Amino acid sequence: MRTIKELSITGFKLLPSAKPVLFHGSTVRKTVTDHLWRKKLRPVILEQQGTKCSICKWIPASNEEIRHLHLHEVEKYDFINKVCHLIDIQLICRKCHSFQHIIRTQLVSTEEQWKDLIAHFISVNGCSSDIINIFDLIIAKALQLESFNETGLALLSLKERKELERQPVRFTIDPHIPFADELRKQIEKKGLLYNIEH
Prior knowledge:
By secondary structure, the protein is an alpha+beta fold. The chain has one domain (21-189). The chain has helices spanning 28-31, 34-49, 94-100, 102-108, 111-125, 135-146, 151-154, 158-166, 180-189; strands at residues 69-78, 83-93, 170-173. It has a 3-stranded mixed β-sheet.
C-alpha cells in the first residue's frame, strides 16, 4: 500500500480541491448581485475562455448545454485577516467543478453520480480504473499540496480564534478580472471590501 508521501499526482490535469472551513459559504458570487455575475460577467468569461472547460476541454454540443459550464472562483486566503482574494475566474464544466469542492461533492452525490464523477476523473487524467482503490489517498495528497498557510492561526489564542470566526469574510478582487471595479463597488457597499493598505 502506497503512502501519501510516495504518491505522485503532478501529472494530473484534474485534482480534488476544497475551500478552507474558515471561508465556507463566503464567495464573491454570493456577495454581488446575480445580474452582475450572470448577465454581465459570465458572457465575458465565456467569450474570453472559448466556451469550453479549461480543465477537460469539454465543449457544449448545444446552447442548452452551456449552462453546464460554470464560473469557478480561484481564490487565495489570508487566514489572519480572514480575507478571500479572488485572483481568477476559471470556466469549467460541472463535472470538473465537482472536484473543486470534493468534500461537499462526496457528501451530496448519489452512488451513481459518484461513479460518473470517478469515470470523468479517470478519463481526464488518462489513468487506470484501479485509481479508485487509492482515491482517498489522492484527495488527501491534493489537499495537502494546496498547503493553505494556516500557520498564523496556530499562534492565535482560543479567544482570538473565536473572535476571528465571528467576523465576516472580506474580499479583494484582482484587477485583471472583468468588471473588477464593479465587483469591488458592490462588495464595498456591503462593508466586505478589504483594503490591502491595512
